[in-house]
Amino acid sequence: MGLREDRERFREVGEQRRQDLAEFIQYGDLGGSDRTSVRVPVKLVDLPEFQYDRLDRGGVGQGDAESGDPVGEPQEGDGDGDEAGEEGAEHEYYEMDPEEFAQALDERLGLDLDPKGKKVIEEVEGAFNDTARRGPRGTLDFDHLYKQGLKRTVAMDFDEEYVAEALRVADWGPSEAFEWAREQHVPVSKAWLVDRARDLDDPERWASIEEMEAERDPEPTHARLRRDGVGKVPLRRDDERFRHPEIEEERERNVVVVNIRDVSGSMRDAKRELVERTFTPLDWYLTGKYDRAEFVYIAHDADAWEVDRSDFFGIRSGGGTRISTAYELADELLADYPFSEWNRYVFAAGDGENSHNDTEENVVPLMRAIDANLHAYVETQPNDTMQTGTHAGKLREAFGDDEDVAVATVTGNDDVLDAIETILGTEDDD
C-alpha cells in the first residue's frame, strides 16, 4: 500500500469518528455551516510519518563507552516542548450537503419523510400504455386487434357435424333445427342450416332429437381448434386501437418555511440560543428534502416585521409580546406561495409568554386558517428561568393530537433533538 493510499485510509477512519450527529446538533458549533453545506467536526487520527535520528555520529551499537560502563544522567533537552495536555486535539470538518444531512437525521431519528411535489413544471410522454380509436397507422395495436378477432372466432365456433345431425331428425327441417340450436346456445344462423339441409343424403336418421342427443356428443371447441387450427381470424375496424403515450406530470417539490421568533424583552440569550439550535437543523433538513426551499423570517414583540436570516437569531427588542401579529404577517406573506403549489411549514418559537387572551382569540383561529403541512411551536424555557408563559399549554389544549400541529418544550440542549423529533415525527405521521 502506497503512502497516498495509506493516508486516505487513515482519513476514512477519521471521518468515521466524526462527531455524532446528535452531539453536533445539541452542542456543536452550528455557525460554521450554511444552507448548502453542513460542517460536522472530525477528530483526525495521527497520520504515520518517518522519524529521523538527528545525532551527529554513531549508529546502531556505536559510541565511546565501553561495555559495562554506567549510563549517564538524563540531560535536559534543547527543545521548547508543550506541557502534557496543553495542546488540543486536531480537528477538521466533514462536509455534508443538506440531502445527506436529512438522510442521516432520518436514520438517527427513525423518520422517513417523503415530500410530495405540488407544482407541475413539465408534462412528459411516458410509456405507450394509453389507447384511442384513432391515430397514425404506425401506432396500431395489432396485438389487441388480433386478440379481439380471436375471441370472436372462438365465440362463434360450433361443431358443424353435430348441429347438422339435428336436420336428420324425422319431420324436422331448418326451422326446427334452428329453434333447437338457439335453446342450446349454439351460434348458428338459419341460412347456414338451409344450405346444409340441401346437401343431406340421409334426411331421417333419428326418430327424435332426444335419440340424436343420446347417441352423439358435440366436440369441444378447444379440441377442434387444437386439431384444425384457428384458421382465418376476422379483423374488424371497430376493434382497432391506436397506442398513445401516457402523459406524465413532473412535479417540483417546493417548500416555503416561515420561521417566527419572539424577540421581546423576556427572550434572553439562553432562550434565543435554544431557538437557533432547534430551527437551524430544521432548515437544513427541509432544504435537503425538497427540490426548492425558500425561507421567510419574522420577528415580533407586540408588532411583527420581516427580517433577514442574519438578523433573525440576534435581534432583541424591549417591547411586550403579541404573537398573533406574527401570524397575521405570515398569512400575508404566504399569499405569494399558494398551498396548491407549495408545501408550507410555519415554525414559531418563544418563551410561551403572550398578551392576555391573544392565544385563544387570535393565534389559534389564525393557525387553523393558514393552510400548512405543519404548524409547530417551540417553547424555550431554560431550567434556570422562571416559567411564566402559558401559550404552549393553551395550544396543546386547543389542538390536542391534531396531525398538523406540533408543540415542543426545550429546557436545555439535551431537549433539542427530542423537539426536532416531535416536529418532524408529526409531519411524518401526516
Automatic annotation (TrEMBL):
Coiled-coil blocks: none
Biased composition (Acidic residues): 75-87
Disordered as annotated region, ranges: 53-90
InterPro entries reported for this sequence: UPF0229 (IPR006698), vWFA_dom_sf (IPR036465)
Designated name of the protein: YeaH/YhbH family protein
